[in-house]
């Protein structure tokens, strides 16, 4: 018991320290993301989303349409429960015979939720960077454009964008994105008169933010992975300590 108590205390202390570190890193990540995408210095133009690209609404499908092998699909609810900044594979697939009735996001599109329980959930975005088109639910929108999709997705996470987006969300039993309003929300385009340099700068910013995102959110790398690993390590040694070899039973002598 003393060994287990000591190990429990050490694990709890280390987990608390890692969790505190993760909280600090998340705040730091949010701060630097907002700073990088504010563009207080340098050549930049803020353009309304409606001038940069177009919005395509998805088509309805339900859980009854889900299959193990079918058309890759993104349900709006998965965007704020499963996906991060970008995705190349889908969590769900729907029946292949539905193909003609569905609406799709193309590689490079940014898929946004159309509804949500909170204002922040409404309009949450994931950049679709898979190699094939993907079906999207009717409570979501595909934003089709010609700039870096992860750059757009990161911009849509910023405090400034969320505050602007909130002005174009209707409140009720369900919060809903007002698409004609969201088209007016501007996002920054670095070096707008030089498309090549603009894309290079977008890619540079994405690379920086990807490193921060991995550190603070990745369950296969970074601090979340370390916290999960320590918990598994604790459970392994706890179980090992509490597993005792069985005594051999004596066999009755035969006549």
From TrEMBL:
Oligomeric form and interacting partners: The methyltransferase is composed of M and S polypeptides.
Keywords: DNA-binding, Restriction system
SUPFAM superfamilies in the cross-refs: DNA methylase specificity domain (SSF116734)
Family classification: Belongs to the type-I restriction system S methylase family.
Residue intervals of the Type I restriction modification DNA specificity domain: 44-227
Name of the protein in question: Type I restriction modification DNA specificity domain-containing protein
Organism for this UniProt entry: Limnospira platensis NIES-46
Superkingdom classification of source: Bacteria
Pfam families per the UniProt record, alphabetical: Methylase_S (PF01420)
């Amino acid at each position: 018991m003393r060994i287990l108590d000591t190990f429990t205390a050490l694990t709890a202390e280390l987990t608390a320290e890692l969790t505190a570190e993760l909280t600090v890193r998340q705040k730091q990540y949010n701060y630097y993301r907002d700073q990088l995408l504010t563009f207080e210095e340098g050549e930049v133009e803020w353009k309304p989303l409606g001038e940069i690209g177009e919005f395509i609404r998805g088509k309805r499908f339900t859980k009854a349409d889900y299959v193990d092998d079918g058309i890759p699909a993104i349900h709006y609810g998965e965007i704020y429960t499963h996906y991060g900044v970008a995705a190349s594979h889908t969590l769900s697939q729907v029946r292949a015979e539905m193909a003609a009735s569905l609406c799709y996001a193309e590689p490079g599109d940014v898929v946004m939720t159309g509804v949500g329980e909170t204002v922040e959930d409404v309009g949450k975005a994931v950049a679709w960077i898979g190699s094939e088109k993907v079906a999207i639910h009717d409570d979501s929108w595909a934003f089709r454009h010609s700039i870096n999709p992860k750059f757009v997705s990161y911009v849509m996470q910023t405090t400034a964008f969320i505050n602007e987006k909130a002005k174009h969300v209707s409140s009720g039993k369900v919060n809903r994105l007002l698409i004609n309003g969201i088209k007016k929300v501007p996002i920054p385009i670095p070096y707008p008169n030089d498309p090549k340099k603009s894309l290079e700068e977008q890619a540079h910013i994405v690379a920086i933010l990807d490193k921060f995102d991995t550190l603070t959110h990745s369950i296969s790398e970074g601090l979340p992975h370390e916290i999960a690993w320590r918990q598994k390590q604790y459970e392994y040694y706890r179980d090992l300590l509490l597993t005792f070899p069985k005594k051999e039973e004596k066999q009755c002598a035969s006549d």
